[in-house]
Design goal:
A hairpin with a 4-residue loop joins strand 4 and strand 5. The protein contains 2 helices and 12 strands, in the order E-E-H-E-E-E-H-E-E-E-E-E-E-E. By secondary structure, the chain is mainly beta.
Length: 168
């Protein structure tokens, strides 16, 4: 079974497009295109299921139309509406800097106490200040000035968190 801890979310499937099984894909990361991946992991009923792509084409920087193998009707494509799409960390090029969506699931470690303050559940980029949203709802500024170390293998970010920020 494919574990979510070994993957990161790269978008969500939208509604069916046309009658031949295409589906819209609102993406936050185009890693599948940069790596020439043959499949995407679609979360169906809480389980990550590999769906092999027959073809895809970009409509914009953040939307693609995807045709999955064995999804040949509008009805079958519509069953995938609102399913999250994931990508395996193992297929991400090692020499490539991690994207924001890749950081979901990383642990935040406070540099002075060396203790974990939580796991990143989401990246909030809705404002000018990028924020890490932890699983408990805590928001931490994702500022380069605060990040001391980024360990992609250990899936952790060591940060110099200002005193009192976590008490808010």
């Amino acid at each position: 079974m494919i574990r979510k801890e070994d993957c990161y979310k790269i978008g969500r499937l939208g509604k069916a497009h046309g009658v031949k099984g295409e589906v819209t894909f609102q993406l936050t990361d185009d890693v599948f295109d940069r790596t020439d991946s043959e499949y995407l992991l679609v979360e169906v009923d809480g389980i990550l299921v590999p769906f092999f792509m027959e073809e895809y084409r970009f409509r914009s920087d953040s939307v693609a139309l995807v045709k999955f193998c064995d999804v040949d009707t509008q009805q079958r494509a519509s069953e995938l509406t609102n399913c999250d799409v994931w990508f395996p960390h193992a297929l991400t090029p090692a020499d490539e800097a991690p994207t924001l969506s890749c950081l979901v699931g990383f642990n935040i470690i406070e540099v002075h106490s060396n203790r974990s303050v939580g796991r990143i559940a989401a990246i909030d980029d809705s404002t000018a200040n990028l924020l890490f949203e932890l699983e408990d709802g805590t928001l931490i500024p994702a500022s380069d000035d605060l990040i001391e170390d980024l360990d992609t293998e250990g899936r952790k970010i060591v940060m110099n968190i200002p005193e009192g920020l976590l008490a808010l």
